[in-house]
Amino acid sequence: MASSIELNIIDTYPASLENGGNGITVTTEHDIPVCSAFAYTNRNEAMIHIAITGITTKDGKKYLRLSEADTAALVALKGSLSLDVPSGKESLLHRVFAKGGKSNE
Amino acid sequence: MSEQMSFQGGVKFLSRYLGRHRRNFALFYLGWFLDSILTVISPIIFATMIDQIVYYRNISVFLRVSLVFVVMSLFSCLLYFLLYTFHHYLSCMFNFDIQRDIFRKLLAMDARYMSNVKSGDFITTLHGDTFECLHFVVRNCIHMTNGVLKGFFYIVYIYFISIPAGLIVTAFVPVLIFATFRLKGTTRTLAEKERSVYGNYVSWLFEILKGIPDLRLLSAQGKARQDFTGHQRSLFSAKNRTGIFNMTSENIISLINLALSLSVFTVCAFSAAKGNMTIGNVIVMIAFVAAVTKEARQFIITNFMDAQARLVRIQRIKQFLSRDDESQWKGQNTLWVPKGSIEFNAVEFSYQDAHPVLVDFSCTIPAGSHFAFVGESGCGKTTLANLLIGFYPLNAGSILIDGMDIADCSLESLRDSIGVIQQDVLLFDSTVRENLLLGNPRARDEELWAACARSGIADFFSSLPESIDTMLGKGGISLSGGQKQRLAIARIYLKNPAIIVFDEATSALDAETERIVHEAWENLLTGRTAIVIAHRQSSIMFCDTAIVIEGGRVVSRGNPRELAESDAKFRELFAIKQETPC
């Protein structure tokens, strides 16, 4: 039973929240897949579910494209950002015995 | 004081009993190991559930993990049921093996031990100490091993989640070990003391129960009450000391654990505030730190300190089973007694080295003759009978029966050849038949009745409501002193030995009853060798020869009637007896 339950493997990436003339932008130096993610500055305060719709690279920086609603939700966050991005699946058994219950790599 | 038993010593001693139930104990351990795994992973699964719902709002996974949690809990309940059922079974089998060995040892114990044994002390060993053996195996071996494994896993996991928290837990381990070793010595000493006081009290209680009629006759109830209070006071004091010390130890350990918990929780609080630790991790940390402290408490208080107390009890069993017993008797030949002559050749014997009881004692008893051993109390008469039936080995000299040295013969054949009738006749709380069969377990009904008829008690037994199937003792009928003596004579008929020893057999009977019993003796002794030990002149006058013993030596011998006329010592002995006020 525990081997049939699959949980998301979460990769955490550092990112920056910049509030410039073009509004709020999220940048990172890492290669992030285009998918849904959870953004936060302190995961125990607030985690915001966002959908990354695309990534644009400019001057070595990667700009994440978000919907307007997601961008608006990020206003509450400040400073350095962390992004929890699901990168695969693993069984509950593996999570408990191999990773001691940790969801992050 | 013997050396204290070590933990390994306790395991080594019990391993012979564990070996007999190897498979069951392996399964039992496996069950507890599985329980340990469930205990360890439950908080981790719970934390996973919490993280899935709090951070990722993943209801589907939350519900499915919850189901796993429920199934695990149900499995845990079933496992506990099976483990405790198994525990009960093992407890019966394992304790029975030890109790059987103790009882077998008691039956084979040498006479020196039996003459000094304290009944209460022995019963405490048989019924109290044996139960601690399984507790030692389960609580101090199985649970302690699993506890150490769990403790190790908890600490590793705490390091995995938070290195500072791991360092704090590691720093407290030496403190706990130090506290343990400081406290264990005192615990053990106090446990030994309490066990000793309790053993003395129970032994005293048994003696009192046996002697209540005497206490009343002596009007010594006041002294008994005083002694009872004294014993209770000692017991209370010993229990108090142990209890207070154990509570103090427990509180010291609790204090260390409290400091540990607070330190780790502080680290968790800071990490969670910075977002470095999830709520699930905090839950696991709280659970694991609580588990570490619980394991530490169990290891130190329940396992380690109780182990000290239990080792004291296991050591007592080991010491009891290691005592000298009759298996050390070297003779193996079968004694063959066609005639029944006895020779005591320069026999020397002492119970304690400095106090010889028999000195160069020599005497020949021809086959079929009837000899009386007379003398003052303590002169060695009963000791001679005890040596003849192999209760003690001789210090020097030899005893020959029909030319065979009894030291070369097996005790079984020796005792089969000699019948002993004592003042106190052993009667079990069972039927007359079963009591008679002690003389010969294979005797048929007609043999039982013939033996009863020859000992003059058949009429009495046939008049009982259920004849020889009537119960004796508690819940049955009581026999008078004379009836008991005749039942003992019937047993001897059934045993049919060539040699019979009467040791103060009729000393508690009135003159008329003694006369009736003597008539039964006369029939019994035809063609057999007899040794009569008596303080009454009337009990020895039918003998061919009387030997007067003084200080472990023969001082005069002859026909009792002639001695009564001519031997000053003989006359003095029985004159003193006759003059003794009733």
How many beta-strand elements of chain B?
Answer: 10
- Quaternary structure state of the chains depicted: heterodimer
Radius of gyration of chain B: 35 Å
Fraction of residues in β-strands of chain B: 5-15%
CATH fold category name of chain A? Elongation Factor Tu (Ef-tu), domain 3
How confident overall, as mean pLDDT of chain B? 85
**Rg over CA atoms of chain A:** 15 Å
Largest interface, counted with CB-CB under 8 A?
Answer: A-B, 24 and 29 residues
Strand order of the largest sheet of chain A: 1-2-5-4-3-6
Taking the alpha carbons of the first and last residues of chain A, their distance comes to 23 Å
Q: Uncertain spans of chain B, ≥5 residues at pLDDT below 50?
A: 576-582
Helix content of chain A: 10-25%
Task: Please give the largest β-sheet of chain B.
Answer: 6 strands, mixed
What overall form of chain B do the CA principal axes indicate? Answer: elongated
**Stretches of chain A where pLDDT falls below 50 for ≥5 residues?**
none
User: Helix and strand string of chain A, N-terminal first?
Assistant: EEEEEHEH
Major β-sheet annotation of chain A:
6 strands, antiparallel, barrel
Query: How many beta-strand segments of chain A?
Result: 6
Give your account of this protein's structure.
- The complex is a heterodimer of chains A (105) and B (582).
- Chain A is mainly beta and 105 residues long.
- Chain A has a single domain (12-98), classed as Elongation Factor Tu (Ef-tu), domain 3.
- Chain A contains 2 helices and 6 strands.
- In chain A, strand 1 and strand 2 form a beta hairpin.
- The longest helix of chain A has 6 residues, at 68-73.
- The relative contact order of chain A is 0.33.
- Chain B is of the alpha/beta class.
- Helices cover 65% and strands 11% of the residues of chain B.
- Chain B contains 18 helices and 10 strands.
- A 6-stranded mixed β-sheet of chain B has the order 6-7-8-3-9-10, with helices on both faces. In chain B, strands 2-1-4-5 form a 4-stranded antiparallel β-sheet, with helices on one face.
- Chain B is elongated.
- The chains are: A mainly beta (105), B alpha/beta (582).
- At the A-B interface, strand 1 and helix 2 of A face helix 2, helix 3, helix 5 and helix 9 of B.
